[in-house]
C-alpha cells in the first residue's frame, strides 16, 4: 500500500469500511451505473490515500464527496474534450485523421492543458482563454470583463508565466 500521511493505515481502513458503501450509493444515484460508481469510488479512495492528511477527518463524508465531485468534473471534462475532438475530426477529410495512438496523446495533452488552466484564478483563466483562443485584444477583454487594458495585460502576463513555469519548471 502506498505511504500515507494519515496517522495510520488503520485510519484509512476505518474510513473505507465506514463510508465506502455510502459513497458507492451516492455515486450510483448520480451516475445511474453501478460499475462506473464503483470505479469512481475506488478512484476517490485512491486520492484519499495519496492526500496529505495529517489528522483524522472530522467530516469524512464531506471530504469524500468533494474528492468524488472533482473526479466527476474531470471525467465530464474529458468526455467533453473527446466529443469536441471527435466532432472536429469528423469535419476533416479522412487522410487527415490521426491514428488511435495519436488521438490518445492529443486528448491526454488537452487534459493536461485543462488541468493547468484550472490552477489559474478564474479571471486570469478567462483572460487567458479570451486572448489565446478567441484572439481578443486587451481592450476587448477589458471591456467585456470591466477591467482596464493594463490590468488585462498584467493578468495575462502572470498567466503565461504560470503556464511556462508549470511546463518548464
Provide an overview of this structure.
The protein has 169 residues and is mainly alpha-helical. It folds into 2 domains: 1-99, no CATH class; 119-169, Orthogonal Bundle (Arc Repressor Mutant, subunit A), CATH 1.10.10.10. 76% of the residues lie in helices and 0% in strands. The chain contains 7 helices and no strands. It is globular.
Secondary structure blueprint with pairings:
Elements: H1 9-31, H2 34-50, H3 60-90, H4 100-118, H5 122-132, H6 138-145, H7 149-168
Helix pairs in contact: 1-2, 1-3, 2-3, 3-4, 5-7, 6-7
What is the number of helical segments per DSSP (H or I, 4+ residues)? 7
Low-confidence stretches: 1-5
Secondary structure class reads: mainly alpha
Tell me the β content.
under 5%
Any idea what the shape is?
globular
Count of distinct strands? 0
Order of helices and strands: HHHHHHH
User: How would you characterize the largest beta sheet?
Assistant: none
Distance between the termini: 30 Å
Instruction: Quote the average pLDDT.
Output: 85
Helix-residue proportion: over 70%
Domain count, please report it.
2
Radius of gyration: 21 Å
In short:
By secondary structure, the chain is mainly α. Helices cover 76% and strands 0% of the residues.
Distinctive features:
169 residues, mainly alpha, Arc Repressor Mutant, subunit A, 2 domains, globular, disordered N terminus
